[in-house]
Amino acid sequence: MKILIFTEGTILMHKSAVGHSREEIIEQVKDKQSSVKDYSSYVPIGNAVDKLNKWKAQGADVIYLTSRKEQVEINDIRNILSKFNFPKGGLVYRKQDEGYKDVAERIMPDLLIEDNCESIGGEDEMTITHISEDKKTKIKSVIIKEFNGIDHLSDNVLELV
User: Fold this and answer.
1) Mean pLDDT confidence for 95-103
2) Whose C-alpha in 33, 76, 85, 161 is 20 to 30 A from the C-alpha of 57?
3) Phi/psi at 18 (nearest 5 deg)?
């Protein structure tokens, strides 16, 4: 099983979000609080590392999708995933004039996990919204509330699809 999971807002958040409610975190993003752009200091949301390691142990292939496009920022996200012991997996991003849908359609995951993009515009900013209808039928989409984490998802990866 191939899982494509979004990083920022789904399994990672800016450091100053720690200890704040989801609503306060969304306001920090909307207000462009300084740590939102400090990708090298991002932290996991909840127990995302443990959850993903459980899925990986069940044979899931985890691929991370970042919103970052600049190489230095992509490297920051890669380093954060490594620093916090997220399971090994590819880190993909949009190239040139690509949208998230292009990346997802190229990878064709069995499962796409992303947040609802509440702080940046909602449904129209989500990946699954723009995937072509014929490909959308082959991808199971799991949408979580932004900054709510994936802790509530089943430990059994097969139950997700």
Assistant:
1) 93
2) 76
3) -55, 130
Write down the domain spans for the chain: 2-160
Name the E strands within 1-151.
Answer: 2-6, 12-13, 43-44, 61-65, 91-92, 111-115, 140-144
- Burial label for 43, CB within 10 Å (0-12, 13-18, 19+), is middle
Which residue, chain included where needed, has tokens 């995937």? 131
Given a contact cutoff of 8 angstroms between Cβ atoms, the answer to whether 10 and 114 are in contact is yes
Tokens 């509330």 found at: 145
Q: Provide the pLDDT confidence category of residue 14 given band limits of 50, 70 and 90.
A: very high
pLDDT in tens, 100-136: 999 999 999 999 999 999 888 889 889 999 999 999 9
Instruction: Name the fold adopted by 2-160.
Output: Rossmann fold (3.40.50)
